[in-house]
Amino acid sequence: MSHTVYAEFDIQKAIDAASPGEVIHIPTGRYQGNFIVTKPLTLLGEDGTEFISKNNEPTLRIENTATISISNIKFSGKSKAIVASNVDGLELNNIHIKDTHMGVHIQRSTNVHIHDIHVTGSEGHYAKKGNGIAIYKSDDILIENNHIEQMQDGIYLEEVKSIVVQHNNVTRSRYATHFMYTSDAKAFFNNYLSNVTGFMVMMTTDIFLENNTVENHSNYNGYGMLLYDVQRASIAKNIIKNNRTGLALQKSSMIQIDTNDFQMNQTAVEGTKVSDNTKASHNSFTGNILTARSDQFGFQLNGNYYDDYTGIDIEGNGYGDVPYVAMSSFGQWMVRQPVYQYFVASPSVVLLTSLDQQINKMESRVLVDHTPRLAINHEIEHNKLDAVQTFLGLLLLVGSLWLWKRGITE
Asked: Considering only CA atoms, which of 247, 236, 295, 240 is closest in space to residue 269?
């Protein structure tokens, strides 16, 4: 019969006895308790150090202090692993959190750096889980290189100013990253896979979403990115792939959608009540069932590549000579009645979409790209490379023949 053995090192006693600024080296072992830090300290665990909550209180609380560093510790227990309040200067590094209700909870703090932590929740409905990393009413935040799975929201941010979220991986959660009432936010090079929604952005201003991959958010309410009531956003260079809706814009304005790669989404871009200065430019749309759908206001399309475009380029400038029409009667109905999505690939809908493109081709209305691009950039570069290789191959062949013939004649 196995039983749990706890280490004898008294962590709380060591914390209480330490002078501000000291480093506390914690020996390998499993420590049960609810610990609190209220002075500048570094807690550095040896390999195999584990904190276990004694009850439903947070395992580690950090309050009303500055310059705290916690690293190389594993946390487990039923409640929150780490809670920090009113902290100026906090670093969490190389921390593993498993089977807790919530991973990290930070409020009213500044100058926070969270990196290389792993948070793994338990099986069950999202409503019964907490968030992997949650930050409230704080500023100057950097969250990077973390791995989070099976939580409610992987990263939840509310009333946060000046934040960077980069190089994180979030899977099998409700929202990978959830911005609420946030400003001056940036998210770069994150990889979000198989959540309900990759990015959920609500009531937020000045946000940049660039070079992220959002993939396989294909449930009934699945979105790669959903922006609601957002002002001033740049969405660029992302790979948005195999989602029910790749990018949804609702009640938002001044949104720039540039050079993204939309692949195999049920609907690539959806817009509802967006401002007329919202523009999608120089994106690539390949393998999507519906390229774009909107209400009567639509949004601008300019210079995008569409794999279903059938026009020609007489001028040879790389752009089609007739407009691309993304307008779809069925798409408009699907906005009003989402349940229609289940008929999206039926033969009758495919025929209706084709007729829409033919009838609306010469009209100037919503969701019409008057300068559709004929080849995506890498294809152009690939073709250039092929031409160069062909020329060099021919040159080598001619040279070889000349040398061979010269050898015979001599």
From this structure: 247
